[in-house]
């Protein structure tokens, strides 16, 4: 999981670093790498001090040298995912295209790269450096667009809730067994053939369009609506 690398923590003065049973240095990054692998393979619900200890080859109590507990590990994984998206983001030609690019970069990490972690952690607040960095960057772009402090804060909430909510929805579908995914998709593709005659005229008329739209991501269409709202909003 090299794409989720984060800076190594500084050694505490006079404290010797522990190593795993295989000789690997037991650091904060070691735990985060193992946690991401476990979540993507088995789901966040099975992450515990014991499963994580087994993954890194250490005693369960060693975890508390770096984290307050498993929830602290999950928060750090979420913050690392945010940092990955920020590091891959490139600003656009103006504040609006830059915001769109930022939303796309973060969405890609949560849904396409780490869907199980994305589903489990999209609702979490980390309070850690990368999250604060994302807040600052978003507000800076909104101020650049002419929004005052209050309006920028409101739009930040709207943008973050949209991106994370959409990420949770789509990563949840990706995590379903393939047979269930196929069945759900088929329900939309066959919608027109399953409607009672003359009972749902509006649904029948829209069925060809729904069959196409409902089996694809709505992220870009929804993002476009938000961008139009931003562009049309009163500003300084």
UniProtKB/TrEMBL annotation:
<dbReference type="InterPro" id="IPR004111">
    <property type="entry name" value="Repressor_TetR_C"/>
</dbReference>
<feature type="region of interest" description="Disordered">
    <location>
        <begin position="1"/>
        <end position="24"/>
    </location>
</feature>
<dbReference type="Pfam" id="PF02909">
    <property type="entry name" value="TetR_C_1"/>
</dbReference>
<dbReference type="Pfam" id="PF00440">
    <property type="entry name" value="TetR_N"/>
</dbReference>
<keyword id="KW-0805">Transcription regulation</keyword>
<dbReference type="InterPro" id="IPR009057">
    <property type="entry name" value="Homeodomain-like_sf"/>
</dbReference>
<dbReference type="GO" id="GO:0045892">
    <property type="term" value="P:negative regulation of DNA-templated transcription"/>
</dbReference>
<dbReference type="InterPro" id="IPR036271">
    <property type="entry name" value="Tet_transcr_reg_TetR-rel_C_sf"/>
</dbReference>
<dbReference type="GO" id="GO:0003700">
    <property type="term" value="F:DNA-binding transcription factor activity"/>
</dbReference>
<keyword id="KW-0238">DNA-binding</keyword>
<protein>
    <submittedName>
        <fullName>TetR/AcrR family transcriptional regulator</fullName>
    </submittedName>
</protein>
<dbReference type="GO" id="GO:0000976">
    <property type="term" value="F:transcription cis-regulatory region binding"/>
</dbReference>
<dbReference type="InterPro" id="IPR001647">
    <property type="entry name" value="HTH_TetR"/>
</dbReference>
<dbReference type="InterPro" id="IPR050109">
    <property type="entry name" value="HTH-type_TetR-like_transc_reg"/>
</dbReference>
<feature type="domain" description="HTH tetR-type">
    <location>
        <begin position="25"/>
        <end position="85"/>
    </location>
</feature>
<feature type="DNA-binding region" description="H-T-H motif">
    <location>
        <begin position="48"/>
        <end position="67"/>
    </location>
</feature>
<keyword id="KW-0804">Transcription</keyword>
């Amino acid at each position: 999981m090299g794409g989720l690398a984060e800076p190594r923590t500084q050694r505490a003065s006079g404290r010797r670093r522990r190593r795993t049973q295989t000789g690997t240095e037991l650091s904060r990054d070691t735990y985060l790498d193992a946690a991401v692998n476990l979540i993507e393979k088995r789901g966040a619900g099975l992450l515990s001090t014991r499963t994580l200890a087994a993954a890194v080859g250490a005693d369960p109590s060693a975890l508390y040298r770096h984290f307050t507990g498993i929830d602290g590990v999950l928060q750090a994984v979420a913050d690392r995912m945010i940092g990955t998206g920020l590091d891959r983001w490139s600003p656009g030609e103006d504040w609006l295209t830059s915001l769109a690019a930022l939303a796309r970069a973060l969405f890609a990490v949560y849904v396409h790269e780490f869907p199980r972690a994305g589903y489990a952690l999209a609702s979490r607040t980390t309070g850690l450096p990368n999250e604060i960095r994302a807040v600052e960057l978003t507000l800076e772009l909104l101020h650049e667009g002419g929004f005052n402090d209050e309006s920028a804060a409101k739009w930040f909430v709207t943008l973050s809730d949209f991106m994370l909510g959409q990420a949770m929805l789509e990563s949840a579908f990706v995590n379903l067994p393939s047979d269930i995914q196929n069945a759900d998709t088929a329900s939309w593709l066959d919608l027109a053939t399953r409607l009672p005659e003359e009972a749902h005229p509006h649904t029948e008329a829209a069925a060809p369009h729904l069959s196409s739209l409902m089996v694809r991501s709505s992220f870009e269409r929804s993002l476009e609506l938000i961008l139009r709202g931003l562009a049309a909003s009163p500003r300084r």
